[in-house]
């Protein structure tokens, strides 16, 4: 039995949980901060995008592992 | 799903003087030539007095927006030195990302042999969907971080990595070394992964729902391409900014 598809699915599926929670938290907290202090929107947004990028990178690592398992 | 062909590495097209030319290199040349040609032709008829043309207003809007962003992160003095480098990163990555989602561009190609199999090789492939391009970009970015560190701090910059004043500082130095190496890897895979994931997403959507399935995702990919270029600009600015601040000076104030 070939379990490679299962490995691919688990790699990206489990790897996406953490970043999903993280990006949700960043977005939620960012909106909360903008709500408290709308004048600081530009600053908060740029910091928020940086945070997104770091959180999302983890999901991308999982994706790269999944792609390697699938195609290499 | 048998006809779905995805290649995560760039396919070779032809050989030029012993060097294999892949489709992503060809697209890199086209994007670079387009940017250079535009910059050359545009800078020849700049209007410094009176009302600028519509195109000039647009370009000024983009450049001033970028400059404001860099200035807000790096400060006024450094922004002037950093801006040419990081803005070039931004523009090249932006147009590379967007070049990959031109509808139909990936369908023009030939059939060739890869690993003894006859497969379809498109002439067009986004430069950033090739891991060699993103690795090169991230190496340039991280080397420039070290260069700016040396320029601002001199040989004191090395103290960040090799500090023999106490065992704890020594291990912190090793950690800094590893973290700078891992930044190269994370730069590389962040950009590559995002762009290749977008291309695969569009392919799979086109397989599932032909013609109408990928349409909303084209909008998403335009957004992702922009955000990734912005992230590359922001991160390289932040890293250079961090490297130019003396570690000891940070504790004094």
What are the SSEs and their pairings?
The complex is a heterodimer of chains A (72) and B (253).
Chain A: H1 4-15, H2 17-36, H3 41-71
Helix pairs in contact in A: 1-3, 2-3
Chain B: E1 12-16, E2 19-22, H1 23-44, H2 54-74, H3 76-99, E3 109-114, E4 117-122, H4 131-153, H5 167-208, H6 215-244, H7 247-252
Antiparallel strand pairs in B: 1-2, 3-4
Distance between the termini of chain B: 62 Å
Residues in helices of chain A, as a percent range? over 70%
Overall outline of chain A: elongated
Round the mean pLDDT of chain B to the nearest integer and report it: 84
Q: Outline the biggest β-sheet of chain B.
A: 2 strands, antiparallel
* Contiguous helical run count of chain A: 3
Number of helices of chain B: 7
- Biggest pleated sheet of chain A: none
Would you kindly provide a written description of the structure presented here, covering whatever features stand out?
The complex is a heterodimer of chains A (72) and B (253). By secondary structure, chain A is mainly alpha-helical. Chain A is 88% helix and 0% strand. Chain A contains three helices and no strands. Chain A has helices at residues 4-15, 17-36, 41-71. In chain A, α1 (4-15) runs antiparallel to α3 and α2 (17-36) runs antiparallel to α3. Chain A is elongated and about 60 Å long. The model of chain A has no long low-confidence stretch (mean pLDDT 88). Chain B has 253 residues and is mainly alpha-helical. Chain B has a two-stranded antiparallel sheet. In chain B, strands 3-4 form a two-stranded antiparallel ribbon. In chain B, α2 (54-74) packs across α6 (215-244) and α5 packs antiparallel against α6 (215-244). Mean pLDDT of chain B is 84; it is low at 249-253. The A-B interface holds A 42-43, 46, 49-50, 52-53, 56-57, 60-61, 63-64, 67-68, 71-72 and B 6-8, 69, 72-73, 186, 189-190, 192-194, 196-197, 227, 230-231, 234-235, 238.
């Amino acid at each position: 039995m070939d379990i490679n598809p299962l490995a691919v699915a688990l790699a990206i599926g489990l790897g996406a949980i953490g970043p999903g929670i993280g990006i949700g938290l960043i977005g939620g907290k960012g909106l909360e901060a903008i709500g408290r202090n709308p004048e600081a929107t530009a600053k908060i947004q740029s910091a928020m995008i940086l945070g997104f990028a770091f959180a999302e990178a983890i999901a991308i690592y999982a994706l790269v592992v999944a792609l390697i398992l699938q195609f290499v | 799903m048998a006809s779905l062909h995805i290649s995560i590495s760039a396919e070779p097209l032809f050989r030029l003087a012993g060097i294999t030319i892949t489709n992503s290199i060809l697209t890199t040349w086209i994007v670079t030539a387009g940017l250079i040609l535009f910059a050359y032709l545009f800078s020849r008829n700049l209007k410094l007095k009176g009302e600028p043309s519509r195109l000039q207003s647009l370009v000024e809007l983009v450049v001033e927006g970028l400059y404001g962003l860099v200035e807000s992160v790096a400060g006024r003095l450094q922004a002037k030195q950093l801006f040419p480098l990081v803005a070039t990163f931004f523009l090249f990555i932006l147009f590379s990302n967007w070049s990959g989602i031109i509808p139909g561009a990936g369908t023009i190609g030939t059939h060739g042999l890869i690993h003894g199999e006859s497969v379809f090789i498109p002439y067009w492939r986004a430069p950033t969907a090739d891991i060699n391009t993103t690795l090169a970009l991230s190496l340039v970015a991280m080397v420039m971080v070290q260069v700016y560190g040396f320029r601002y701090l001199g040989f004191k910059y090395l103290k960040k990595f090799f500090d023999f004043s106490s065992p704890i500082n020594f291990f912190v130095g090793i950690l800094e070394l590893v973290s700078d190496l891992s930044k190269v890897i994370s730069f590389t895979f962040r950009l590559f992964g995002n762009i290749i994931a977008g291309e695969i997403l569009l392919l799979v959507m086109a397989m599932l729902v032909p013609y109408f399935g990928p349409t909303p995702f084209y909008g998403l990919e335009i957004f992702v391409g922009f955000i990734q270029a912005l992230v590359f600009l922001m991160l390289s600015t932040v890293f250079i900014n961090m490297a130019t601040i003396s570690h000891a000076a940070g504790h004094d104030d």
